[in-house]
Amino acid sequence: MDNQLDNQEREWQKKKDDFYMLQNDYNNKINELFLKYENKQTAAIERYNQLILENSNYPFLFIKKVEVLYSAENKVIAVEYNLPIPEDLPTIKDERYIARSNEFRQYHFTETQMNKKYDIVIVVI
Fold this sequence. Notes:
Blueprint: H1 2-38, H2 42-54, E1 66-71, E2 76-81, E3 92-98, E4 103-108, H3 111-124
Antiparallel strand pairs: 1-2, 3-4
C-alpha cells in the first residue's frame, strides 16, 4: 500500500513540476516579448497587438482574422481585422417552455433590433 502511495505521489509531483516548467517557459516568453516591445522592435509590436486583438472577448463567437503591420519610421500601426457580419450575431431574444403544448418557443430580435445591435457591436470592436 505504501509503495502504491509513493508511486502516486511521485507521479503527482512530476505532473506538478512539468506544469510549473511549462508555466515558467510561457511567462518567460511573455516577458521577453514585453521587453522587445518596450525596446520598440517592430516584430514585437506587431505580435503584441495581434495577441491583444486575437484574445479579446466578445459576447458572441466569430472568427477573428487579424493582421498587424507597424511602421517604425512613422510610428503607425496598421490593422486589418475581419469584423463580424450581421449573420454572425445571435438572433434569439428569448426561449420559453410552453407547458400546454410541451414545446419550446423561440422569440427572435426584429430586423430593426438586429441592425441596432450590429451597430453597437461594430463600435465596441
